[in-house]
Design a protein that fits this description.
By secondary structure, the protein is of the alpha+beta class. It has helices at 16-24, 41-44, 47-54, 82-91; strands spanning 4-7, 10-11, 30-32, 58-62, 78-81, 97-101, 131-134, 151-154, 160-164, 203-209, 214-217. This is Cupin-like domain-containing protein.
């Protein structure tokens, strides 16, 4: 028994025509290695710089525990100053993550440091970017985004292991009815096929994101 995980396609650059025809329309994930080459943020957004910019702001922190139906959606597990959190993830492994942090609200000049990939498609909420932070050991449980948007996810600092599944596999991934996340009783990297037999034969895609890589995640993945 096994799941088949094939590599996510990757390119250095891509034309609008190729992107639309080969990835956007067929809804196929893609990693663009050099989409950030013109971004000041590529070199500028170090941990120290972000600490200097928004380090005193209190941020909600999330762990890898199951969602609790009795709590408000996206209820946090803890709070901490952003600068203290950055110190924490550089010092030791932790499963605490920052989810949907909007630093632009506190430091609008950060908007000048990155570029939306409008050369590939339109429809970006440029004034509402969000940052996610996680240290060694942090895991985001299997889910899809509730707004079903196409996502361009740019990764800075360290490495990130990404596993993606097409929406067509939702039932066999044990997606909870009327929810956007799957049962968290199995480890997607090492599942128990006897306990969760529907996982056998599922096909997904995976990659390791490096500093500056941009992952295109089609709607529903």
């Amino acid at each position: 028994m096994s799941m088949k995980l094939s590599p996510i396609d990757h390119v250095d650059d891509i034309s609008k025509e190729d992107f639309i025809n080969n990835y956007l329309i067929p809804r196929k994930p893609l990693i663009i290695r050099k989409a950030t080459q013109s971004w000041p943020a590529l070199q500028k957004w170090t941990f120290d710089y972000l600490k200097e910019t928004v380090g005193d702001k209190i941020v909600p922190l999330y762990d890898s525990s199951k969602a609790d139906p009795s709590k408000p959606i996206n209820a946090s597990a803890a709070e901490m100053k952003f600068g203290d959190y950055i110190d924490l993830i550089q010092k030791e492994p932790t499963d605490l993550r920052i989810f949907l942090f909007d630093p632009i609200k506190y430091a609008p000049a950060l908007l000048d440091d990155y570029r939306s990939p409008t050369n590939l498609m339109g429809g970006f909420l440029d004034k509402y970017p969000n940052m996610f932070f996680g240290g060694a050991g942090s895991v985001t449980f299997l889910h899809y985004d509730i707004d079903l948007a196409h996502i361009f996810h740019t990764h800075f600092n360290g490495r990130k292991h990404v596993i993606l599944f097409d929406q067509k596999w939702s039932d066999r991934l044990y997606c909870i009815p009327f929810a956007t996340y799957a049962l968290e009783d199995y480890d997607i990297e090492n599942p128990d096929f006897k306990k969760f037999p529907a996982l056998d034969g599922i096909e997904g895609r995976e990659a390791i994101l490096e500093h500056g890589d941009t992952l295109f995640m089609p709607t529903g993945y």
